[in-house]
Amino acid sequence: MIKMPIPCRRCGSADAEVYIPYARLSLCPECFRDFYVKRIKRTVEEFRMFRTDDRVGVAVSGGKDSTALLHGLKEAFPNMEFVALHVDLGIEGYSEECREKVEKLTEVLDVELEVYDLKEELGFTIDDFKRTIYRRKICSACGTVKRHIFEVLAGRVGVKVLATGHNLDDIVGVMLNNFFSGNWSQLVRLRPVLEPVEPNQTLKVKPLITTPEDENLLYCLYSDLPFREENCPHAHKERISRNREILEFLSKRNPNFRHQMLRNFLKLIPILEEAIEKPKYRRCRICGYPSSSDVCAFCRRVELVRKAKGMNIKTEKA
Ligand code: AMP
Ligand code: FES
Ligand code: ZN
Asked: Which pLDDT value is given to residue 318?
């Protein structure tokens, strides 16, 4: 049987290529891109992520999410200034491609790019954590390192707002994990807007929090954007696919499941925040950044990896 093309529900002239199940919309590529960009704009405005006269840093990894984010933000706010921030993690067979794609993307979009090269600046790479007690949880050490470096980069280029490409599936997946394990303090950190601990730190925003992951990929493909295709060799494939399966199963029965869960969770946040004891921050003895302990999580990991490599321990002061 020959399947007849369906016309796009928005423009009515072009053939639909994308079906958005939770909105019951069949769209042509152009109308899909418009739908995608308008949602970014709405999300930024709804959660008051930034003002149009702010200069905004965008953490771009070279993956589909943050690639689509940078392009989508530029389309949604054409008169704003965005600065791309990239951390070269030095992961063999992976980081080089990430950096190349980010360099290409920012060149095409004419966006300023600031890169932090871990190997050049700190003398180690994320792969070096293989020699430490983090060998089975490299992603976790990498996350701590990245979060710290984002602040360093933001300080270097002078931005007070930092946007990341966390998408709806990421957030709902991590939400489920933290909910099952009763990790309430981490759950609260999944907010669309995270206030800085200190005035000289960044406001962290997630403009893709309402965007399903597969739509980021489609947006990159339809906009012909350069993004890396390799996955990080340290990613826990099993754990990721287990979460994905649960989410896919629940979303198949109810296409609105992820959006509903996010909305309900956002209502719960103020209640959770009241109930959770807030950590008391002081300054890390080594780097001077805010920390809940004498030496911050970043400096402790740097110390470990440098010891494992037989290096001297010294970190840049904030
Ligand atoms: P992940 O924690 O790897 O899922 O990444 C979440 C978000 O953090 C991405 O969407 C990016 O915005 C940002 N990010 C991750 N890795 C990097 C990197 N190496 N350089 C810059 N930003 C990154
Ligand atoms: Fe950090 Fe994979 S990107 S461990
Ligand atoms: Zn520190």
From this structure: 56
Here the tokens at position 263 are 């909305």
In testing the pocket of ligand 2, which one of 102, 118, 126 has its CB within 8 Å of the most ligand atoms? 126
Instruction: Indicate the residue type of 234.
Output: H
Residue type, 305: V
52-69 per-position pLDDT tens digit: 999 999 999 999 999 999
pTM of the model: 0.94
> Could you give all domains of the chain from N- to C-terminal order, each with its CATH number?
47-229+259-278 (3.40.50.620)
Residue 209 burial class via C-beta count within 10 angstroms: exposed 0-12, middle 13-18, buried 19 and up: buried
Q: What is the pLDDT of residue 127?
A: 97
Q: Are 78 and 109 in contact (CB under 8 A)?
A: no
Q: Counting ligands in written order, which one lies closest to the CA of residue 86?
A: 1
Q: Nearest bound ligand to CA 235?
A: 2
**If you average pLDDT over residues 84-113, what whole number do you get?**
98
Choosing from 40, 49, 61 the residue with most ligand 1 atoms within 8 A of its CB, the one to mutate for a pocket test is 61
